[in-house]
Task: inverse folding
């Protein structure tokens, strides 16, 4: 049974702070890792993907992957109230194959 | 217009009724998925299809069936709806060989009384 685990939160950070979201996965064969953002009542949208160990930066977002520890994280720098959403971690065995989602972490950025 | 369209967006039905949720896409993707989302349980895969002749069960396929009528259309059926099938249902597509990103429809909220 493949499992993806996230702290459900809620996580609250003040505006301008760094938000750190964490995800662990059980399948050592997992190859692709994704972070989706989901606003309340809306569909998930991709914000980051990462395939290789290390850091990947895109604007205020940084994804970090450590395959040895089976751990992927998302850092949001200079958090804004518009970042308030649920963040879903997703893992797949190979690109475009089945995706396994965590339960999501609810983030609130306090103005 | 949305690239991945789901109908209906909201549906209330009674136990025992047959329900079909429809999904159509204009992205030209071969791969299509049906997920359900429940509070505290995240997104769980019901069925997926990699082309018109390929249908695969996901984590929670019991009580559901699907039909891939064309590359662009993938329907989910509940043959005899029960209250614990009350959930938000998402259709999604992806492109093989791409980034692996899933493109979601806007969701169909189903309530079974």
Result:
């Amino acid at each position: 049974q493949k499992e993806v685990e996230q702290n459900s939160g809620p996580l609250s950070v003040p505006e301008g702070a760094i938000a750190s979201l964490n995800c662990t996965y059980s399948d050592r064969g997992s190859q692709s890792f994704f972070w989706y953002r989901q606003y309340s009542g809306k569909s998930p949208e991709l914000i980051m993907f990462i395939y290789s160990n290390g850091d990947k930066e895109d604007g205020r977002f940084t994804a970090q992957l450590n395959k040895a520890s089976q751990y992927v994280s998302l850092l949001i720098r200079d958090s804004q109230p518009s970042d308030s959403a649920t963040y879903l971690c997703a893992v797949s065995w190979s690109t475009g194959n089945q995706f396994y989602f965590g339960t999501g972490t609810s983030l609130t950025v306090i103005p | 217009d949305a690239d991945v369209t789901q109908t209906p967006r909201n549906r209330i039905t009674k136990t025992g009724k047959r329900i079909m949720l429809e999904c159509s896409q204009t992205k030209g993707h071969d791969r299509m998925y049906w997920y359900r989302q429940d509070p505290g349980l995240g997104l769980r895969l019901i069925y997926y299809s990699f082309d018109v002749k390929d249908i695969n069960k996901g984590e929670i396929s019991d009580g559901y069936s699907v039909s891939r009528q064309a590359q662009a259309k993938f329907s989910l059926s509940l043959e005899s709806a029960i209250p614990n099938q009350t959930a938000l249902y998402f259709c999604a597509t992806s492109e093989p060989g791409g980034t692996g990103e899933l493109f979601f429809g806007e969701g169909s909220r189903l309530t079974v009384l």
Chain A touches chain B at residues 8, 32, 34, 36, 42-46, 49, 88, 90, 92, 95-96, 98-104 (CB under 8 Å). Chain A has a mean pLDDT of 91.
